[in-house]
Write a structure and sequence with these properties.
Order of helices and strands: EEHEEHEHHHHHHHHEHEEEH
Strand content: 5-15%
CATH topology of the largest domain: Conserved hypothetical protein from pyrococcus furiosus pfu- 392566-001, ParB domain
Helix content: 40-55%
CATH class of the largest domain: Alpha Beta
Number of domains: 3
Number of helices: 12
Strand order of the largest sheet: 1-5-3-4-2
Radius of gyration: 30 Å
Number of strands: 9
Distance between the termini: 72 Å
CATH architecture of the largest domain: Alpha-Beta Complex
Structural class: alpha/beta
Shape: elongated
Amino acid sequence: MNERTTIPLAHLVPNPINPRGPVAPESVADLAESIRIHGVLQPLLVCPDGVPGHYRVVVGHRRVVAAVLAGLTAVPCTVREISDREQLQIMLVENLQRADLSPLAEAHAYEDLLRTGLTLCEIARQVGVTPGTIKHRLDLLLLPERVQDLIDRRQLAPTAALPLLNLESAAQQIRLATSAVRRGLSGREVKHAVEMHTSRVGRRTPPRPRQPGAPVPAGPIAARLGGQTGYVSWPRIEAGVAFACRDCGLGGTLVCKDCPLEILLCALIGPTAD
């Protein structure tokens, strides 16, 4: 069914799953004035509401409120049978086409669309953007809330926020984001600051490896492989000893008994008889 008809405003009900929520009358004052002069030029998209003669609005919530303000009693509509899932998808896509949508609101809309079962490429085709653009918006949701708040208040541009994801901790991301806002740094300058930080971290001297037999704090791997006391002892290993993981059975043979990396591997998964 795809019927074009005129429906009384009293028979139209707001969509309960509309992601934008209720429309404030003051936000559509200009639209109401335009409708008062020219009428509703584009029909609303509606679907049956379950009550005979009543319809649920899918596209056109702002036009309904504006039409009421303009004094209309009925509006042109296209009636179509639409599932709840498709209604949500249509409303989210329409919401993404708003010019005043904030980057984070856009990111949440993409996230909601993914939850409906659409793929990244399908969303990109419907909205008219590249999959890369969608991914960059979704990446903003990985940032700490304090950084997202700076983005939401339009104090920090998304291009300046994305490089922060290369920092190790949320505390570092918040610190640099706050500094970027205070100093008015561009996206390029924030990216350079992040690269300088990560290069300094990369140049730090790694800790000297422990010697065989020294106690090592039992981390998740060691604990999973049998460490019960909080410490495991590094085995004294000779070349040619075979080792295998007690969980998956994967392993190999120690080639060099003096290689710290191979000693660490054997210490973690435990030597076994060849």
